[in-house]
Amino acid sequence: MTSVTRPAVPRRTVIAGLSAIAPLAFLSACGGGGGGDSETANTTLYTWVSNENDRAQWQAFIDAAKEADPAFELTLEGPSFENYWTKVKTRMSSGDAPALLTTQAARAQELDALLAPLEDLADAAGVDLSQYNEAMLAGMTVEGTLRAIPYDAEPLVLFYNRKLFRDAGLELPGITYSQDQFLEDAKALTSGESYGVALSSGLVHLGMAIGFANGGQPVTDGALSLTDPMIVEGLQFSFDLVTEHKVAAAPAAVDSEPAAQQALMNGQVAMYLDGPWMYQAYEDALGEDLGASIVPSQTGEAKGLIQGSGFGIASNAKDPGGAFETLRAITTPEVIGAVANARGTFPSIVSEESQWAEGKAEDNVAAVTAMAHNGEALITTSTWNEVGSKFSQYATDGFHGNRTAEEILSEIQDAVG
Amino acid sequence: MSSLARSLAAEGTAASSAPSARRHGAARGHSRAAALYLSPGMLGFAIFIVVPLVISLVISFFEWPLFGVPEFVGLTNYRYMLTGDPAFWISLRNTLIFAVLYTAVNLTVALGLSYWLMNLGGRWASFFRVLFFIPVVTPMIGNALIFRLILNDDGVVNQILGVVGIQGPQWLNTPFWAMLSLVTMSLWQGMGYNIIVLGAGIAGVNPSVIEASRIDGAGAVARFFQVVFPMLSPTIFFCTIMTVIGAFKVFAQPYALTEGGPGNSTNTLVLHLYRNGFSFDKLGYASSIAWVLFVLVMLVTAIQFSQQKRWVTYDS
């Protein structure tokens, strides 16, 4: 019998092979989800942390909650605001997902599946939900159930530079401001390289706010109604500010908002629409020259488009009751008031508005308060992100006079439905 | 057959089967060693390429949200793509326009520049090679920010044009100029790679062949098209394949420069895919777009390979 000897595989070959496989095994190990304990999840908040300003705001909630309970703990986790709306869905799918998350009222519909109903938990904990801003509660309600407790209720307001108004000999806008007067002022404030108004190419900005103030609704009974005549008219008015009246520069298609904010802070433009969350930043730049007015409307009366955010509990939280304890600690009137005072967010509880008003010019407080008290939350659809994204693509056409607001909004309405 | 003959035959068989068995055994051993050497690479290929591809195909038959329960919808995503989503066809058209323009200009200019660099020689050639390659290693998002400053309505280009009394166009806000701006920025970013690869190919051309053509009286143009180009054709073919594939995958440029606008005029397939998957929460539909793109790129590449014998010569 002839024996056949197999060539031995060199030991070096085996080691090389195993060494090559080892990193893959390591990668596989890293990919494992793992399940986090509910105690950690209940004290972790998934939220947007775009910059130091955001982090300081969330830290203000923690610091205020610690005043009441020194043992209170809350860990922050999350990406930038722009990435938050995508990543929150994948993060909440993982085994060790935080039990607490943040949402805007305008995005509550989109995060429907992620957010647990809160009424029963609030009842059990004895939380009086009626103390929170009614419009914001409506904004946080999806399919008849409350999905987040609002911590702010921020109406869009028209910020302006008092000095530029005074230099042009104009009367300062206040708690009444008509569209005609606004246009007249914008023309008077435009000269050479300086424009009366700065614009952003986003959907929820000046045009939408004016349309809303005139009674328009971009969403009616849960369905898109972008071709609402008042909304169309409002957006066309904002396009015309550039193309017809030449009182504003056409905003860039990408990242137009920071440029517009910077223009107001540098004194290059006299007016810009934004939320009270920017109040402190504008005041730091303009000092006593910072003015705030209502959004101009046909009648000149205030009607605010309220945007705001709140804290919710993940629908897959292992211990919703435990998570609600944390949520409750950061949404008490005292905490919301303290954050409003420290960070300038307009509070979602009326009794805490004085905290926000402290140290601010009286007429500015009157204008912001008028918008908040006469406002409605922007309630959207689950497809709102798609609507906003498409508008960003098309807005540049409108601001360059290539297409009308009606054409653009009709196309988006047809495409998204 | 006699017993002697049978005995001899048996001995002969035994004698010949021993080396044969050893050969088969050695071959089996080599196969196992080869498999062992290949396994890490193949494992990585399977985990990171094959499995995701298959999963992506499966997802494309579902309505698959980022969070929530997927629902099987069969061919609905493909049907919607082909008959119900006008943005898909516009994105496809834009991608094709971009791919053709980008590839044609990229290869032509890169070939011209690398030929010029070969003739230039010396330190200046090295300097320009580095200069042309720098954009390749810079991040596209950063480049897009710079190009936005350059091409905005009141950007650097229009301000310079204004100085000489010309009112520049809206580079990023009209469909024609926006696409042209996109191609221009992509060329600035991507051409350096082809310049290096083609330069290496030109350097590999036998100088005696060029010298012989010169002695035979060939001018510069004839020398390039009849001597250098054929010898360089395998390198050009490689560059064409890679450039076309890269062009079909264009994403960062429209994402950062124009957001696909104005309207859908610079929306590309990958940008459309990204938005549907990660902004509009339609992973199933995004996967179906990915598969169509994959098949399209495979087809274009296959056509290029099938046609290469018409112009590519491997006889150096």
Write the SSE topology:
The complex is a heterodimer of chains A (417) and B (316).
Chain A: H1 11-31, H2 38-42, E1 44-46, H3 52-68, E2 75-77, H4 81-91, E3 100-104, H5 119-125, H6 134-139, E4 141-142, E5 145-146, E6 149-150, E7 154-155, E8 157-161, H7 162-167, H8 179-188, E9 195-197, H9 206-213, E10 219-220, E11 223-224, H10 229-243, H11 256-265, E12 269-274, H12 279-286, E13 290-293, E14 304-307, E15 309-313, H13 320-329, H14 333-343, H15 353-357, H16 362-373, E16 375-377, H17 384-399, H18 405-416
Parallel strand pairs in A: 1-2, 1-3, 9-12, 14-16
Antiparallel strand pairs in A: 3-15, 4-5, 6-15, 7-14, 8-12, 8-13, 10-11
Chain B: H1 3-59, E1 62-63, E2 71-72, H2 76-83, H3 86-120, H4 122-133, H5 140-151, H6 156-163, H7 175-203, H8 207-215, H9 220-248, H10 252-257, H11 269-279, H12 283-307
Antiparallel strand pairs in B: 1-2
User: If you average the pLDDT of chain A, what whole number results?
Assistant: 88
Give the class of chain B from helix and strand content and strand pairing.
mainly alpha
CATH topology of the largest domain in chain A: D-Maltodextrin-Binding Protein, domain 2
Please indicate the count of domains of chain A: 2
Number of helices of chain B: 12
Counted up, domains of chain B total 2
Percent range of helical residues of chain A:
40-55%
Low-pLDDT stretches of chain A are 1-7, 16-21, 23-35
H/E topology pattern of chain B: HEEHHHHHHHHHHH
CATH superfamily of the largest domain in chain A: Periplasmic binding protein-like II
Q: What's the arrangement of strands in the largest beta sheet of chain B?
A: 1-2
Do you know the CATH architecture of the largest domain in chain A? 3-Layer(aba) Sandwich
Largest interface in this structure = A-B, 43 and 50 residues
Major β-sheet annotation of chain A: 5 strands, mixed
Which strand-content bin applies to the residues of chain B? under 5%
CATH topology of the largest domain in chain B: MetI-like fold
How would you name the CATH homologous superfamily of the largest domain in chain B?
MetI-like
